[in-house]
Design goal:
Length: about 240
């Protein structure tokens, strides 16, 4: 009886709730008289609170897949379920709202506005959200800036900061709206090995705190920091685990 109860509890603990589910997702682009098939029937589930890395050679479709996950592009065919909702019927305004509210983006090139401070950059996504309490947003921004160890740089501009500091500011910006999903596109691509390790330590910590993270990388040692590696080739998933 005790053993049976243990097995039931163990099964319930491993039954994780999915945040993302792709079913037969395809993406095709016309190129002259030919069709480029960037994604060829992707089936993928991402559970809440997990850290996944997407890997594959150049041109394999991993960036296209990332754009799909972040609602920056639409599938040619197939279904994308986000938080259990079928997004196929969503209009552009609704997709833009999801991008702003539910997705935080971290880029290889940081994408910070050059003439604004760390605080202003972190607050930027709140400018596109509705019903934002400015005082509370600023309080959260300062908390996140402290979380990524940049309190001493709160009024610095990007050209006054190192690459690692800029990426940490970008991570704080990605978290400002408390998104359901954080997408990191080659987050260590422009950093030296020591700084890359610091950024990855931060992403791992954020995942342990409950953030769902999906990262594109071409570096094996970086990918191994994730809980799961999804391998893509020729627009198909060829391995996941």
């Amino acid at each position: 009886m005790v053993m049976m109860l243990f097995l039931v509890l163990r099964q319930n603990n491993t039954n994780m709730e999915s945040l993302i589910k792709l079913e037969g997702v395809k993406k095709e682009y016309p190129q002259g008289e030919t069709i480029v098939r960037a994604l060829q029937g992707i089936d993928l589930t991402i559970e809440k609170g997990t850290f996944s890395a997407i890997m594959g050679p150049s041109g394999c479709g991993k960036s296209t897949l990332m754009h799909m996950l972040g609602f920056l592009d639409r599938p040619t065919d197939g279904a994308y379920f986000f938080k259990g909702r079928d997004t196929r019927g969503f209009g552009e305004d609704e997709l833009a709202a999801i991008r702003n509210r539910d997705v935080g983006f971290i880029f290889q090139s940081f994408n910070l506005l050059p003439r604004t401070t760390v605080l202003e950059n972190v607050l930027l996504p709140t400018a596109y959200a509705t019903g934002v309490d400015i005082a509370k947003a600023k309080e959260r921004a300062l908390m996140l800036i402290d979380r990524v160890k940049l309190s001493h740089r709160v009024n610095a501009r990007p050209n006054q900061m190192s690459g690692g500091e800029q990426q940490r500011a970008a991570i704080a910006r990605a978290l400002i709206n408390d998104p359901a999903l954080v997408l990191a596109d080659e987050p260590t691509g422009n950093l030296d090995s020591k700084t890359s390790d610091e950024v990855m330590n931060l992403l791992v910590e954020l995942n342990r705190e409950g953030h769902t993270i999906v990262m594109v990388t071409h570096e094996d040692d970086i990918a191994r920091r994730a809980q799961r590696i999804i391998r893509v080739k020729d627009g198909r998933i060829i391995g996941s685990g």
